[in-house]
TrEMBL record:
InterPro entries, sorted: NAD-cap_RNA_hydrolase_NudC, NUDIX_hydrolase-like_dom_sf, NUDIX_hydrolase_CS, NUDIX_hydrolase_dom
Keywords: Hydrolase, Magnesium, Metal-binding
A GO CC term assigned to this protein in UniProt: cytosol
CDD domains for this protein: NUDIX_Hydrolase
Catalysed reactions, semicolon-separated: a 5'-end NAD(+)-phospho-ribonucleoside in mRNA + H2O = a 5'-end phospho-adenosine-phospho-ribonucleoside in mRNA + beta-nicotinamide D-ribonucleotide + 2 H(+)
Cofactor(s), names only, from the UniProt record: Mg(2+); Zn(2+)
Protein name, UniProt field: NUDIX hydrolase
Protein family: Belongs to the Nudix hydrolase family. NudC subfamily.
Pfam family, one: NUDIX
UniProt GO MF annotations: metal ion binding; NADH pyrophosphatase activity
Domain Nudix hydrolase: 17-141
Organism: Acidithiobacillus ferrivorans SS3
Biological processes annotated in GO: NAD+ catabolic process; NADP+ catabolic process
């Protein structure tokens, strides 16, 4: 079902297309960088995310977000997959990002947690089911 104008002259349809969002599972110096958004409760960590901007490729977007949110320079990104997040009407385009540098947080991120590869498989993402799905997909296919 879509909202549409009933006028024969108008023919407007509200398509309600999903919003593209990039997500990055960032690894720097051999450890994965999980981030806690400044608006989240303590102990809740996930991937970094950001909206795809006009004219930007998903790969460029996640490298930009890596630098903006973590202060790290991404030099390689590998596609993990795309995932629907219907409750926010978003299409998540996930990447594994290899980065270098020193973490320098922006105002969006309250803190980070660094985890080794073997810790990532058992990390408790709590209610963030999509994060767990993305990470599991990466670990299974990497």
């Amino acid at each position: 079902m879509r909202l549409a104008c009933s006028s024969q002259q108008c023919k407007f349809v509200h398509w309600n297309n999903p919003i593209p969002v990039v997500a990055g599972l960032v690894r720097c110096n051999g450890q994965y960088v999980l981030a806690r958004n400044a608006s989240w409760p303590p102990g809740m960590f996930s991937l970094i995310t950001g909206f795809l901007e006009h004219g930007e490729s998903p790969e460029s977007a996640i490298l930009r977000e890596t630098e903006e949110e973590l202060g790290l320079t991404g030099h390689e990104c590998k596609f993990i997959g795309h995932f629907a997040l219907p409750e926010f009407n978003q299409l998540i385009i996930a990447f594994a990002v290899e980065a270098y540098g020193h973490v320098k947080l922006n105002e969006e991120i309250a803190e980070v947690q660094l985890v080794a590869h073997d810790q990532l498989a058992t990390f408790d993402f709590g209610c963030l089911e999509l994060t767990n799905t993305v990470v599991s997909h990466w670990l299974k296919n990497a």
